[in-house]
Structures
1.
Amino acid sequence: MPTIYIPTALRPYADHQAQLTVDAATVREAVEKLTEAFPRLKQHLFKEDGQLRSFVNLYLGDEDVRHLQGLDTPLAPDAELTIVPSVAGGVATLADAPARRSIIDDARLQTVSLSQEEVLRYSRHLIMPEVTMEGQRRLKAARVLLIGTGGLGSPLALYLAAAGVGTIGLVDFDVVDYSNLQRQVLHFTSDVGRPKLQSAIEKIQAINPHVHVIPFETRLTSENALEILRDFDVIVDGTDNFPTRYLVNDACVLLGKPNVYGSIFRFEGQASVFWAAQGPCYRCLYPEPPPPGLVPSCAEGGVLGILPGLIGLVQATETIKLILGAGEPLIGRLLLLDALGMRWRELKLRKDPSCPVCGENPTVRELIDYAEFCGMRGEETPQDLQGIPCLTPQELKRRLDAGEPLVLLDVREPYELEISRLPAVKHIPMAQVAERVHELNPADEIVVICRSGGRSGQITRLLLQMGFRRVKNLTGGMNAYAQEVDPSLPVY
Ligand SMILES: [Zn+2]
């Protein structure tokens, strides 16, 4: 029977299964049987009118079914169907790909030479036929921009600097936090509290003083992106949020630059090279972002500390190949890593002629408001929670101390409650609230709690829509409660 692979983000709605077999002769039949067996999956795959959602792609083998017969595509008994929701993201086919050449032109190459110390430093490169003295000089002439110096940015910065990329631009405005150290290997324990940029510059200079670092201590925005990206040859996206991902994609398409993409979630990763001049862009694959809340961020869903190393180094390899003009780039291909099964799979991506940004009649001709476009979730834009009744940690403490009969509804996952919790909470994980709502009494005053106030805000809104009148969101969640009221609780 055909096999369907379920991605991590959707497994909670499918009894946590990674794959299952269905007796089906077509893609449509397979998906119908899947959603019959797991009704909660339906809203994540289909719109209310029954159309497949545009941020969900179905692959038969390595082909997008949109390029086959869509939902009517027949399934052989040994077929493998993969659901690929957007965690990242699409063409010319490989057969049409032009001959590879370096992104660094010969005029630029003539402007750099290597010192004796550099010849020694890069000697293991210089004796490779794919690199040689010429390739190493191209690396030195190259200007690579890293968006973010976090999980993916760490291995990228370390290895690209060591390999001799001459100019590395860094965009980050964040400060090193204890929770970063498990995966962001560019930053050390002694850097906690310091700006990531400062930490990154020191490490890069220590590894290779020949690298010229250009720091941009700012958030990448629609206002500054074109200006920042303009002078670089290759853009590497190391961010983990949708607004920046679409912003980087659109800016790269408008500027004609290659966008080396990677994304990570728990034990899974994706990588590709989006370059509209030679292949698909991210929007060819995912024209629109998923609705807020469907795809959790690393902060909500977690990520294995090693995973950014694996995916970041795929991005670093692709960056070096573009500079050398060597090999076969990941253009038009989406590489998927399942680290639990330790399997790498590869899917074909095609350029979408109707892509809103790189298609034949683009509707996006300048950068837009990406936070609005992505309907940013509460954890990232508190203003989204405006209008939702809320309670500050101090008010909650005061009312609990006064013995007021509040029902505390904690909507986090069970393993989060093991990290920190308030006594006597009613625990219903977010995904189960709708079906277990009968366990709550609308007459009670209910305070909804999560890690930082985003998920609980959504549940507060849901309960209000379901007719509850006395429900409030704990502003800033358990982490704010720990920071502002009870320092004996850990922040995570
Ligand atoms: Zn496109």
Note: Residues 307-324 form the longest helix (18 residues).
2.
Amino acid sequence: MPDVTFVRPDLGVFCRLDELGLEVVGQRLEPDGAVLACRVEPGEFDRWCRRCGGEGAPRDTVSRRLAHEPFGWRPTTLLVTIRRFRCTICRHVWRQDTSKAAEPRARLSRRALRWALEAIVCQHLTVARVAEALAVSWDTANDAVLAEGRRVLIGDPARFDAVRGDWRGRALLAPHASRGQVRL
Ligand SMILES: [Zn+2]
């Protein structure tokens, strides 16, 4: 009999949010998608001013939406609450670091990017299908995957050219009319 060990179910671990430095605090399940409310794991340097090193006081919070990898083909969106602080000395304002979760200004989490790249390169999905699974626009998915492909394959530009040609070919196969079916 195989040695099987179960541990307590944990939504954050199951959705690999722990890898992104996020803690899940709520869920909203809808027929066409799931939204996970998250907060950023407290960091050692959250409260210290990036400019002068002074201590920051909590100011407010901001929200950031990130497309995450889909589970069971149901789009999963992260609604991340990010704390902001104001320096008590120089009045500089900053927010918690979310670089583990996503690139600055990115619409996709790092796990979503990885999923999208593998879906296109390894599973041969179209950009349109990937965009639908992530609940983002075709352009958002395409731009993110191209950028991630460049980053991953940066050490081997020739290999990147081959991959780029491959998924651009798939993009051309997806009729432009299909853009209208993708949820924006
Ligand atoms: Zn300061």
Note: The longest strand covers residues 56-71.
